[in-house]
Specification:
Blueprint: E1 3-9, E2 17-22, E3 31-39, H1 42-48, E4 61-62, E5 67-74, E6 86-89, H2 99-102, H3 112-115, E7 119-120, E8 123-124, E9 131-134, E10 140-142, H4 148-151, H5 159-166, E11 177-181, H6 185-197, E12 201-206, H7 209-218, E13 222-225, H8 230-237, E14 243-248, H9 253-262, E15 263-271, E16 291-294, H10 300-311, E17 319-322, H11 327-335, E18 342-345
Parallel strand pairs: 7-8, 11-12, 11-14, 12-13, 14-15, 15-16, 17-18
Antiparallel strand pairs: 1-2, 1-4, 3-5, 3-9, 3-18, 5-6, 6-10
Length: 349
């Protein structure tokens, strides 16, 4: 049996390790993908520190929930993809048969706790390995001419903010504003998506001058340093009204408090980040009719739409490539806030 290297979480609240494992063989209905790129997501840092017993699955498993590559081989009964096909892996893996899954929203699978898995890199082996086993071809989206190393972040870093933005798109009319708090991996894609599909004025907020510079480069009209005065700067940029949409890509106590100050009457505040913050809600704690919602990933149909934007040249992840042997170092850099766009682990170079 062939062997390969994989970057695996072996236990809760302990550092992942690069170990040798067997290359999986696809069974009936399964697909083996040769991994071209696996994005290093900030949420993995939270996953590494998760308390035991809080999620419907347990280690060990290979990290990497943001993946793209080429079909290597298929199991019996699979005829919708062929070896060599470039594909993106749709990240959230549901039961495939409940109401949510039937409409391609496996991110909101109604049987998630029952099936005890959330996806590759989230309970099942992910893409930070040379090969990745995908349980069904329904989870593979054709990439066409897109380079899978560059496209890997589109399956999460672009899909997640795309879903959050799309649900509020009717509020982003000419003259409206949208605020993106945290313009790293997901945030720099949120800025591009807002630019591509809405007429809103885009305001980026971050504590890093480098990330604010990237946000301005990819489409933000206003760049606001985080900290004292950030809310006032956003209000000034919106002529005192506040924004119709606020995306909190961080999710800390501080960023949530800022988000509540940045919204206007009838605004949407979308909590996307997993930093664990809370926002006390009372009648006067946010503008009237301001809606606050969490969002998680997006549907497979929305991933198809995201890939179409990329194929049209309207969005592009800013990617730094690294070999699998540097995965641990990449996460340390990510923890220190040193990666302005998206770091992608490329097991095959």
């Amino acid at each position: 049996m062939s062997r390969m290297q994989a970057f695996r979480l072996l236990g809760w609240q302990q550092p992942p390790e690069l170990v040798e494992v067997s290359v999986p063989e696809p069974g009936p209905g399964e697909v083996l993908v040769k991994v071209a790129g696996a994005g290093a997501c900030h949420s993995d840092l939270h996953l590494m520190e998760w308390p035991p017993g809080q999620l419907p699955f347990d280690p060990p498993f290979t990290l990497g929930h943001e993946n793209a590559g080429w079909v290597e081989s298929v199991g019996a009964g699979v005829n919708s993809v062929r070896p060599g096909d470039p594909v993106a892996v749709y990240g959230p893996w549901g039961c495939g048969v409940c109401r949510a899954c039937r409409r391609s929203s496996e991110n909101y699978c109604e049987r998630q706790m029952e099936i005890a898995v959330m996806g590759g890199g989230l309970g099942r082996d992910g893409g930070m390995a040379e090969y990745m086993l995908v349980p069904s071809p329904r989870l593979l989206i054709p990439l066409g001419e897109l380079d899978p190393r560059e496209a890997a972040p589109l399956s999460d870093a672009a899909l997640t903010p795309y879903h959050a933005i799309k649900r509020s798109l009717h509020k982003l009319t000419p003259g409206s504003s949208a605020v993106v708090i945290g313009v790293g991996g997901l945030g720099h894609m949120a800025v591009q998506i807002l630019r591509a599909i809405s007429p809103a004025r885009i305001i980026a907020v971050d504590s890093s001058a480098e990330k604010l510079a990237l946000a301005s480069e990819v489409g933000a009209q206003v760049a606001v340093p985080a900290g004292d005065g950030a809310a006032e700067a956003v209000r000034e940029a919106t002529e005192g009204r506040g924004a119709e949409l606020v995306l909190d890509i961080v999710g800390s106590d501080e960023t949530l408090a800022l988000a509540a100050q940045c919204g206007r009457f009838e605004a949407d505040i979308a909590l996307v980040g997993l930093a664990g913050g809370t926002l006390p809600v009372s009648f006067f704690s946010q503008p009237y009719e301001c809606s606050i919602a969490t969002t998680y990933w997006g549907s497979a149909i929305e991933l198809i739409e995201v890939l179409a934007l990329a194929k049209a040249g309207r969005i592009q992840a800013h990617v730094e490539r690294y070999p699998l042997t540097q995965a641990a170092d990449v996460y340390e850099r990510l923890r220190r806030g040193e990666i302005p766009g998206r770091a992608v682990i490329c097991p095959h170079g």
